[in-house]
Amino acid sequence: MADETVTAGLLVIGDEILSGRTKDVNIAATAEFCTDLGIELREVRVVPDVTDEIVGALDALRHKFTYVFTTGGIGPTHDDITADAVAKAFGVALPINPEARAMLETRWKSAGTEVTAARLRMARIPEGADLIVNSVSAAPGFRIGNVHVMAGVPIIMKAMLEAIAPTLRTGRKVHSITVKAGVGEGAVGDALGEIQSRYPEVRLGSYPQMGGDRPTTELVLRATDEALLAEAAREVRAMVAAAHERAGLPAPDAEVY
């Protein structure tokens, strides 16, 4: 249903993320993906390559949100334990999936790649799960219940998101308007709070910008109701204009501020 709220949580898995060795970009990609589909991404967790940590986070998220997306830990090495953890969380076995194996062996045969026990780890899929097609490297992700398990490599993860998009329920699209102010947050904070209290269904965010001649602020309004959003934005623009006047600045211009 297009009018219902559809929510999601994201579980990022990997020691390399927590150590800083790998800079995560999948959070932003997932957030943009969800926004485009009208899905509210409400929580992101990052956990190490520890089975119990993954199971605990997964159980918390999958009972809380419409969908859970995971990234990382489905490769061929010993520390790729996401499939093991997901199978444990759902209480199912983790056999080699014939369809997944066929996908991989077709790819390996065309590339002249040897079939090894390590590579076959990528064909282990929890019982009852459906495969998520990987158009980049063939090694599939999988979906079990409301959990979608995907690769950590950004280009593969994006391809998997595209593959699952048609299978997901969409919610009400969240629209946004950005109002730029040539003053710091302190000059608009009180008035912004008052506007927020009058428009509880509109999310108002304040984001300070540095690096110019003076501090400026970007005020972001988000809501599913476009008419209500436009009404709140008019009040914010009027508030910003008043703040500029008090500061002796020219009237706000979106091309300048």
UniProtKB/TrEMBL annotation:
InterPro entries: CinA, FLAD1_M, MoaB/Mog-like_dom_sf, MoaB/Mog_dom
Domain MoaB/Mog span(s) in chain numbering: 9-171
SMART domains (alphabetical): MoCF_biosynth
CDD domains: cinA
Name of the featured protein: Competence/damage-inducible protein A
